[in-house]
Predict the structure.
Amino acid sequence: MVFGPWLARGRVVSPVKVNHPSKKKFRKCLRNESTAAEAVLWKCLQRRQLLGCKFRRQISIDCYIVDFYCPEKKLVIELDGDAHFSPTVDVYEERRTKFLEAQGLKVIRFENVELKENLDWVLERIKSYLE
């Protein structure tokens, strides 16, 4: 699946490859080995349970794989666990987020602990981006 060009910050963005076949095995592996936080959030997002919006999990967008993606709202949701808290990862995540935003996507992030301690708050934040 490829998105057509659209405007992002006043300029036309070239099409982005979604679910490129070369990443299929890796995406499947990530889905099968999801973290506890990803599994909890997926239970709340799957089957259009949140405001009737369709979400997909572990989707590749160009060279990056995102945790959750709502195509109709162009919303990416990322969950950050302990492995995400290092200077090297911070630089990578910043570059990745900038790329995704340049494609016209909105990226929101939650720490796993936020999801564990206050799932209702996380779901309300997601709803606010979907409305």
